[in-house]
Amino acid sequence: MTLQVEFERVDLPLADTFTISRGSQDVAENVVVRVRDDAADDGDDAVVGVGAAAPSRHYGETAATVEAVLSDLEAAIADVDPFQTRRIEAECERAVHDNPAARAAVSIAVHDLVAKRLGVPLYRSLGLDPSTAPDTSFTIGLDSVDRVREKAAAAADAGYGTLKVKVGTDRDRAVVDAVREGAPDATLRVDANEAWTPKEAVRKAEWLADAGVEFVEQPVPATDPEGLRYVYERSPLPIAVDESCVVPSDVPQIADRADIVTCKLMKCGGVQAARDLFAAARANGLETMLGCMVESNAAISAGAHLAPLCDHVDLDGSLLLADDPYDGPVREGGAIAFADDQPGTGAVER
Ligand SMILES: [Mg+2]
C-alpha cells in the first residue's frame, strides 16, 4: 500500500472581521490535504482521507510554508502502514519538525482514512465515548462595545451557552460588561492572548471573578513564565494556558503555574500528539481544553472526535467562517453531534 498526498489552498472569508489583542483577520488561509491509499492491488477501491492545515503566523507558518513541505511529508509516509498512526506522526516530525500545521493536516487526513477503512467514526477507532463531548464555546472577538453586545446577544440566541471573550485592551471592563448585558445567562471565559502585564492580569482577574467569569486564558506573554507564575499564585480565577503550552513536553514546565492546558492540533502537530498532551496534562493534575485556529471543518472535525478527552472545548473556528466548503460534527449552537453511520471524521464537502 502506498500513500499519496494531494493538497489545495483555500482562502476562506470570515463572516465578520475577527480581532484579538495581536491583530485582525478577514480571511483564513487553509490548505486542504487529501491522503489517498492505493489499495487497487487488493482489488479494493482507494480510500481518501481529508484533513486541513490552518497555519498561524504566530507559530511561523503560512499557507505557502505548508504547501512547501507537503511533498516532503508525502515522501516520509508513502510506505508507512496508515494504521500505524503514531509512526505516521513520528515520520512527519522527523521530516519537517517546524511545520506543525502541515503535519497536523496529514495526521488528520490519515486518521480519517483509517477510520473510513475500519468503517467507524474516528472517536470509535480512538476508543472514546462520544456522549461525554462538552459543547464548544463561541468566541466574541474584540470590537466596539456596541458590536460586542450585539454579537453576544446573537450568539446566545443561536444557542451558545458558553462565550469566550477576547480581551487585552484598555476597554476590557466595558467589553466584558457588554457581553454580560447581551448574554446574561451565558458562561463567560476570557482570553487575553498574552496582552497583559502580570500585575494588570491579577487586578483584572479580581474584577473578572466578581463578574462571574469562569477562567482567564493566556493572561501574560508565553515568554514570561515567571509572570505566569506570579498571576497563578494571586489570581482568584483559574488560569488556562494556550501560547505557553504548545507540545506535550511543555506541560511539566507550566504545571505549577496553570490550571488548564489548551491543546490545538495545529500547534502540537497531530491527533496522537494531542492525546499525548492531554495525558501529560492529566498526569500533572491539570484540566484540558481543546482549541483551534480559524479553520475549516476539514480540520476541526478531527478535533471534535477528541472532545471526549476534554474538560472544555473551544472548537468554533469553522463557525466563524462565512462559507465553509466542508460540513462536520460541530453544530451551530455549540453541540458536537456525530452521525453513527458516518465513518472517519465526518468532514464532508458541502
Ligand atoms: Mg487562546
Automatic annotation (TrEMBL):
The keyword ATP-binding does not apply. The keyword Isomerase applies. GO terms for molecular function: metal ion binding; racemase and epimerase activity. Belongs to the mandelate racemase/muconate lactonizing enzyme family. Residues 145-238 form the Mandelate racemase/muconate lactonizing enzyme C-terminal domain. This is Dipeptide epimerase. Keywords: Isomerase, Magnesium, Metal-binding. Its cofactor is Mg(2+). Pfam families: MR_MLE_C, MR_MLE_N.
